[in-house]
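Team,

Forwarding the record for the chain on the shared tracking sheet. I've put the sequence and predicted structure together so nobody has to dig through attachments.
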Amino acid sequence: MEPTSPKGLDLQRNGLYAIHSLVTDMNGSNGEFTMSGRAELVTDPTTRNLAAKGCPYTPKDRYACYEFKLEECLINTYVDGVPKIRRWWDKARK
């Protein structure tokens, strides 16, 4: 992302992130997925090059690159209108 992006500056400030899937209708028919953790700015050239190889475009050298460390995932599905929550978290985190 652009180095001046407000989202990027937030990640550099505290590293916290959360990503939530699209809920396709009011009943949550397709369920929900959430993941969260901490992001770290990538400065190592080898890691940046590896990330660039996986991009569908050519990232500019000025772009900030972040590694998103996964700490928790939550899957919520609904069975007969009742939520069924499954959760995973990194037990090693403090």
